[in-house]
Structures are given as structure tokens and as C-alpha cells.
Amino acid sequence: MLTRIFLFIILFFSPSCYAWNAANHKIIAQIAYDNLTPKAKVKINQLGKKLDPYFQGDNSFIQMATWADQFRFQNMPRLSQWHYINIPFSTDKMPLPAIEENNIIAITQQSLQVLSSPITTTADKALFLMLLVHLVGDIHQPLHASTRISKKLPHGDYGGNLYPIKTRYARNLHSYWDRGLDFAKLKRQRPTLKQVKKIAQLLEHEYPKTYLAKQIEIQAPMAWAEESHAIAQNFAYTTPKNKRPSAHYVRKGRRIVKRQLTLAGYRLAYCLNKILDRT
Questions:
Q1: pTM score, two decimals?
Q2: Domains of the chain by range and CATH?
Q3: For the chain, is the Cβ count within 10 Å smaller at the N or the C terminus?
Q4: In whole angstroms, what is the distance from residue 205 CA to residue 152 CA?
Q5: Are residues 176 and 165 in contact, defined by beta-carbon separation less than 8 angstroms?
Q6: Cis ω on the peptide bond leading into residue 53 (within 30° of 0)?
Q7: How far apart are CA 68 and CA 102, in angstroms?
Q8: Predicted local confidence at residue 185, as pLDDT
């Protein structure tokens, strides 16, 4: 059962659908791990051991956050849809298409159900934990909850993938936000565990749980997606096409990124504590 589910899950990732880069996914996982209860942390560590030899050592929870980045198979569109939800909006009164049912919200809810169920196996719980850690992060990336509809692009711009901009390291809006507008200015996009811990601690200090308390308690994945969508529509898309984003846009965008990463980590910890403390 473990092998069959594992093979099914790893095959869904498509290179046309990137999420937060490895650094940002690990930062979210580290923030979540820092805020687990002792009981939840013990259970998380036990589930992580079930994933050997895929993830090794005491830091398996942090490592599993980037699992999807390591399997980049093409031509599997239904499975790649698990990384996002295309909530459409239009700036030229173009009719909006329906939201496809096969999306990140559906698989996130399924992951929560598997972890909460008293009848699912430990192996299944471990695999869906790995899935949940990644996807909670994805939902908080604004361009993973939006697509801009227009007369030129009636089917949408695929979360900003068809929205060209000019930066040193990203050619479109989606990639720019996947990299977090380079807020951490890391020389490597696969940072050391020490770097991840340091950045996580800085974000937790800048955005303490008390500051985000009301937002953390919102535990509906669709509500998270709607928040991300609002950020995309009201801010992310305000930088002009084919131009370099302004200094003001970069400063504000980086503040949003830092808040979204921190909020994702807190929310992930909150839902895991709620599930694992009672089982």
C-alpha cells in the first residue's frame, strides 16, 4: 500500500506548475515545527520515520516540505492541478469560467481527513502528512490561487505564468512570487538547515502568533485560497507587464511574502496540533 500511494503521489508534479521555491517551503515547515505541541512533535517525528529511505534523519519534517520539487514529470495535467486553484478574475469584463473541481483545496481537505481518521494506516498518514506540508504552503502563494482572464487570454494566464516581467531571476509574475521576490536574498535556493532556522526565527519574531492570532484560527483551506487570491488581484498584478517592478512594489511585496510564509507555518502547526493532540 505504501509503495503504491507513494508512486501515485510523486508522479503528479509537473514542471509547468512550480510552487514556493525550496527555501520558502522549508521556512514554512520550520515555523510549523517550532510551534508544534510536544505530543504533536513526537507523532510527527514518528510519521517521518515511516518515510525512510525517502527522507532521513531528525529533520525529515523540514525535508518533506520540498518533496514535490524533486519529481518533475510532464504531461500529467490532472495531477499537477493539485498545486493550485485557479480562482479567476478579469479586468476587461471578460466572462469568468467555473473553477475546476480538481484542485489544491480538494487534495488538502483529503489530506486532513486521512490524518484525522482513526482507521487509516500509519503509512498512509505519513504520506498524506508529506503532501499536506507542501500544499498548505502552496495555498499561501498568491499566484497559486489566481488566474487573470482577458479577451486575449480567455482561459487565463495560468497564475501569472503568461504575465511577463523583467527581473534578474524571473521572467514572469508567477516565478517572481515563487521565489518570494527574493526576500531572503539567499545565494543558494537550497539553503542549509541553519539558514532555514535563522530565517524562520526572524519571521516568527517579526510576525508573532499574537499578532496573527485571528488569522491563524481560520482553518478552512478555501478561505486561505481566497485570501491569497485577494492579494494577487489587488496587489501582485499591479506591476506592469514587460517592465521591471518598482522599488515600492518590491518592498511591499516582500512584506506580504514574509507574512504569508509565517502565516502558512502557524496555520499548518495549528491544524496538526488539533489533529494529533487528540489521537
A1: 0.90
A2: 2-276 (1.10.575.10)
A3: N
A4: 44
A5: yes
A6: yes
A7: 18
A8: 84
Res. 186 pLDDT band, cuts 50 70 90: confident
Show the 3-state SS of the chain.
Answer: CHHHHHHHHHCCCCCCCCCCCHHHHHHHHHHHHHCCCHHHHHHHHHHHHCCCCCCCCCCHHHHHCCHHHHCCCCCCHHHHHHHCCCCEEECCCCCCCCCCCCCHHHHHHHHHHHHHCCCCCHHHHHHHHHHHHHHHHHHCCHHHCCEEECCCCCCCCCCCCCCECCCCCCCEHHHHHHCHHHCCCCCCCCCCHHHHHHHHHHHHHHCCCCCCHHHHCCCCHHHHHHHHHHHHHHCHHHCCCCCCCCHHHHHHHHHHHHHHHHHHHHHHHHHHHHHHCCC
